[in-house]
DNA sequence: AATGAGCGT
């Protein structure tokens, strides 16, 4: 039995607290700013007074005309009758956030000095081709296909148990295998002559949003078949996406399907352009 | 508009 004259206790408390809240106040300051004071109740029941100082800007300065007009609309719903502009108790007003990617943020910690040193050493180190003594890397040498490095017996490798790298590509005494050549089983590959990336099933995707990530592309493209590689071009200095990407498939037929379906596909307010890739850098 | 990165003697 409920005590006489008592309604639901929860209801009562609700009414109490909401009725006692003072109205929002706005005071104009001399410097042209305004101070807005609002009152609200937190989840734990505590009453909170919030003051904010804002600087008013002419609407024309900051928004396009359609948005400006929208700002003058009469409020509706639970905000009905409230004055124009954001009510700070229901709307949080934030500053514009500028997104500035920074290169090398990972190493910008206490031990970043060490990193700097290493970098400089690398930069100062002179490059001399072992084949022709030119100022390029041996691997970039125009004669590397026809000539062996001078001296023949290169400094003995530490781990001699591995006569050839995991890829078994037989690049002289070096066991290094560049990432794109690793783990190949040679499916229908002409092994004579130069090594070329298998771009037969690779699509070039352009007009890619700078906010896209490789995973986004993988998600979109893997419905057409097994995606073997996604490369999203980024500026190596800034990390900014350059707006194009490469997507490789295990099967060229899947690539063809994807090409047909994804060319013209809308992604993040941009229309993707998809076509088969031509050969890589020469 | 744009055709990829990686190692390092």
From TrEMBL:
Gene3D superfamilies from the UniProt entry: 3.30.70.330
InterPro entries per record: eIF3_g, eIF3g_N, eIF3G_RRM, Nucleotide-bd_a/b_plait_sf, RBD_domain_sf, RRM_dom
Any single biological process term in GO: formation of cytoplasmic translation initiation complex
Disordered: annotated span: 1-33, 148-174
Principal subcellular localization: cytoplasm
Polar residues: bias regions: 18-27
Molecular function GO labels: RNA binding; translation initiation factor activity
Annotated compartments: Cytoplasm
GO cellular component, one term: eukaryotic 43S preinitiation complex
Domain called RRM: residue spans: 201-279
UniProt keyword annotations, A-Z: Cytoplasm, Initiation factor, Protein biosynthesis, RNA-binding
Complex formation: Component of the eukaryotic translation initiation factor 3 (eIF-3) complex.
Summary of the function given for this chain in its UniProt record: RNA-binding component of the eukaryotic translation initiation factor 3 (eIF-3) complex, which is involved in protein synthesis of a specialized repertoire of mRNAs and, together with other initiation factors, stimulates binding of mRNA and methionyl-tRNAi to the 40S ribosome. The eIF-3 complex specifically targets and initiates translation of a subset of mRNAs involved in cell proliferation. This subunit can bind 18S rRNA.
Protein family (similarity comment): Belongs to the eIF-3 subunit G family.
Identification of the protein by name: Eukaryotic translation initiation factor 3 subunit G
Organism: Massariosphaeria phaeospora
